[in-house]
Amino acid sequence: MNSISIALIDGHPVTIEGLRHVLAAHGTFTIVACGESSRDAIAIAEQHRPALMILDLAIPGNAVAAISDIRARYPGLGIIVFTAAPGVDYAVNAMEAGARGYVSKSCTPEEIVSAVRTVVAGDTYVSQNFANEVITALRNASVRRIAMQALRLSVREEQIVQFLLGGKTNREIASQLGITERTVKHYMTVLMQKLNARNRVEVVIAAQDLRRGPAGQPNVEAHGLKNGPPFPLGHRPYHS
Question: Which GO terms describe its biological process (predicted)?
Answer without folding.
Answer: phosphorelay signal transduction system; regulation of DNA-templated transcription
